[in-house]
Design goal:
38 strands; mainly beta; six-stranded antiparallel sheet
Length: 747
């Protein structure tokens, strides 16, 4: 069972360890776990935490590595029960202390610990031995590419028969080393990637606390007989307590609730008497919070957080929580604390190698997201470090968490069993976070280009949903993309760039939209060898994420005459098609679109990806294009053309009529009165205006409405581009949104 760390005394065991490769799996047979000092030949120094892919002497190694270090028990912990804690190790971990075997953990994100109280020598150095095995999955890869491309056989699109490791994006996804080729497991994420700690706890201690919060309701018996919020909040806590004394103890559990990030002097206290049996105990303690302050996303209010201080037989821990309700209806719409909300979202992954993830990275990324008016994040298919979720709690960013399963997973009973244990851990790790909004148990369970597909949706996904629901019975749990009102739209990438979007069935929740492009030359030169850059060596480019079929058959991007021109062409197309996907989806706000998540914020590794930023945090052209149209107030143009195609030039014959609707979105929860709306048409690069209009209109809160229709005859005397420029200003003259659309006048 997952254990909470909380505010415990601990000794940091990060730093310099020693390691030894075990390519032939000799360590067990040679009893490396009995070594007291790693002084024998073959042991080298290494810094922990780390992912071994990032170590120059190790690199993309698949197999087993042994680690060791010594430690002493500090004086201030010598009367405590002692636990050896690992934040995260990828993938199968065996641990010994002073030659005694502690146990095994499987997984990549799930933290784990072992009690070592009776195994350590208080007065001497103690030895930790860790055996970390991160092998290649034994699944077979078969070619599933029937399109004409210039790649050699091993670099064509390949599909796994059925992966058995539960690693999600870290083993099987599009944008990673070996992308979609027979090498698609490359970029191994193995290693002790998280913190290692020696933790001290008293004999009777709180192991874990699971929170449950709700808004208080009461029926209006004297009025309209309706259920209404009564101004209170209900906070209930399951307190898991371990009694290590060997005898029953009568004691009190106490709970104190105070404001954490806002001004409120109210202290709410409650206690109850319990009898703790030897071993594990679970006790419920519930408190009503008067005049509760709710947790909101940053754009709809303030993310109010409370601190719960829990006491049990002298032990004390603190944890933060928020009171909120996030619900969905039959139409797939979202309601936060009873308020209909629209999610301007972002898919996010810190790095393919989680030892790189840290508060500095998240702070920089999330500040940029707030500046872009993003209010929701979808993590999938992996789990981030706990600090990321804490930051989202405090910043007011709503979280949609996907369990680490992506493509091509086996539907065997063994995989179901092991994945169920891990999803239970994920639920226990994250359910207390105020930012948590909804779950998915699998990223894309039915994306297979093989005739005989594993039956994961009706087998694995069912059990995972039941297991996660036993931890979190309140939040919505989604089984997998492309069902239950969930959809991906990647025009020019996963869908044809010439698809008619007016004929597409649009679902409420767009959990991926976007396109692909090539990063800037400075970044590209860091991972593509010079002799493979131009003309492109297609095997190399495909390995590093340039999907030939997507770029040249779907997006139909032109190569151009130089590498710089090709980079620009891909980025220019991505910027335009993403901008127009956003406009198209936001014009359909609540009809039916409820949420939309760009795929991705940044590339998770050196790759030709789909991010706004590449792995080195250099922006793609799409960054500024998206920032302009993800604002809470958006003016946009829906040109009238059939078929309706996004991301292409808008071509009109001279003398023909152009017609377009002017849409304005207001995602604020207040009306904007007397907004100034303006549009004008001019020749590109010239200031001469050929048509314009300015008018005033109230913008209703939480709305998307057509405010005007442009009807204009393309002049007969000009071949070239016309630009439709638009803006919205508030009553005080402040610009709320600017936008444009380019029309090409041709013969």
């Amino acid at each position: 069972m997952f254990r909470g760390v909380y505010n415990r005394k601990f000794e940091d065991l990060n730093g310099i360890w020693k390691y030894r490769l075990d390519q032939n799996d000799m360590g067990y047979r040679q009893s490396w776990y009995l070594e007291k000092e790693a002084s024998a030949p073959g042991w080298k120094k290494i810094k922990v935490p780390h992912n071994w892919y990032l170590e120059e002497e190790i690199g993309d190694y698949f197999g087993t590595i042994w680690y060791t270090r010594t430690f002493t028990v500090p004086e201030y912990m010598q009367n405590d029960r002692l636990f050896l804690y690992f934040e995260g190790v990828d993938y199968i971990t065996d641990v010994w202390v002073n030659g005694e075997y502690l146990g095994q953990n499987e997984g990549i994100f799930n933290s784990f610990e072992f009690e070592i109280t009776h195994l350590v020598d208080i007065n001497k150095e103690n030895t930790i031995i860790v055996r970390d095995s991160a092998p290649k999955d034994l699944t077979e890869y078969v070619e599933a590419d029937h399109d004409e491309t210039p790649m050699s056989e091993k670099y064509k699109f390949h599909q796994s028969i059925g992966i058995t490791q539960i690693k999600g994006h870290m083993i099987e996804a599009m944008h990673r080393p070996g992308s979609m080729t027979s090498f698609r497991q490359d970029g191994n994420s193995g290693g002790i990637w998280g913190d290692v700690k020696l933790i001290g706890r008293p004999a009777v201690h709180i192991q874990y606390v699971k929170s449950f919060t709700k808004i208080g309701y009461k029926k209006d018996w004297l009025g309209d007989k309706q259920d209404k919020p009564d101004g209170t909040g209900l906070a209930a806590f399951d307190v898991f307590i371990n009694n290590g004394t060997g005898r029953a103890i009568r004691t009190e559990i106490k709970l104190s609730v105070t404001a954490y990030n806002f001004e409120d002097d109210t202290v709410t206290n409650i206690s109850r008497e319990v009898v703790l049996q030897p071993g594990d105990n679970v006790c419920k303690i519930t408190v009503t919070i008067p005049q509760v302050k709710l947790w909101w996303t940053w754009d709809h209010g303030f993310p109010h957080l409370y601190t719960a201080a829990l006491f049990a037989d002298g032990d004390q821990i603190e944890m933060n929580f928020g009171v909120k309700e996030i619900t969905t209806d039959e139409a797939g719409q979202w309601y936060l604390n009873g308020r209909h909300i629209f999610l301007r979202g972002m898919r996010y992954i810190s790095s393919l190698w989680m030892s790189e993830a840290n508060e500095t990275m998240w702070e920089a990324d999330f500040r940029k997201m707030l500046d872009m008016d993003i209010n929701a994040i979808r993590i999938g298919s992996h789990v981030e470090r706990d600090g990321l979720y804490t930051m989202c709690d405090e910043m007011g960013l709503l979280m949609w968490q996907v369990f680490p399963l992506h493509y091509c997973i086996s539907d065997s009973d063994d995989v179901i069993n092991r994945a169920s244990d891990m999803i239970r851990d994920m639920g226990m790790m994250l359910t207390n976070h105020a930012c948590m909004g909804m779950w998915s148990v699998y990223k894309e369970p039915e994306i297979y280009q093989l005739p005989d597909k594993p039956n994961v949706y009706f087998k694995l996904c069912e059990i995972l949903k039941e297991t996660l629901g036993s931890v979190d019975p309140i939040r919505w749990i989604h089984k997998g993309d492309y069902r239950e009102g969930v959809q991906n739209i990647m025009i020019g990438s996963c869908q044809d760039g010439d698809m008619d979007v007016h004929k597409a069935l649009i679902q409420p929740n767009i959990v991926e939209f976007g396109a692909d492009s090539v990063p800037c030359l400075k970044s590209l030169q860091k991972f593509i060898p010079e002799d493979k850059l131009w003309p492109p060596h297609w095997d190399t480019w495909q390995y590093w994420g340039l999907f030939y079929y997507n770029q040249f058959r779907r997006a139909k991007v032109e190569m151009g005459n130089s590498l710089e021109e090709f980079i620009h062409n891909t980025q220019e197309y991505e910027a335009l098609v993403v901008k127009e996907q956003i406009e198209f989806l936001r014009q359909r706000k609540y009809q039916p679109v409820a949420s939309m998540f760009l795929y991705y914020w940044s590339d998770a590794c050196p790759i030709m990806g789909s991010g706004l930023l590449d792995y080195y945090r250099e922006p793609y052209e799409v960054y500024d294009a998206m920032k302009a149209v993800y604002t809470q107030v958006l003016i946009s143009l829906e040109w009238e053309a059939e078929p309706h195609i996004l991301g292409r030039q808008k071509k009109y014959a001279r003398g023909s009529k152009f017609t377009g609707k002017v849409w304005v979105n207001n995602d604020h929860f207040h009306d904007i009165e007397k907004a100034q709306i303006h549009w004008e048409i001019h020749r590109e690069g010239q200031k001469c205006i050929v048509a314009e209009k300015t008018f005033y209109s109230d913008l209703e809160q939480d709305s998307a409405t057509v405010k005007d229709t442009i009807s204009w005859i393309i002049p007969e005397d000009y071949v070239g581009n016309y630009v439709v420029d638009m803006f919205v200003k508030d009553e005080d003259g402040r610009i709320l949104s600017t936008n444009y659309c380019v029309l090409k006048a041709c013969i």
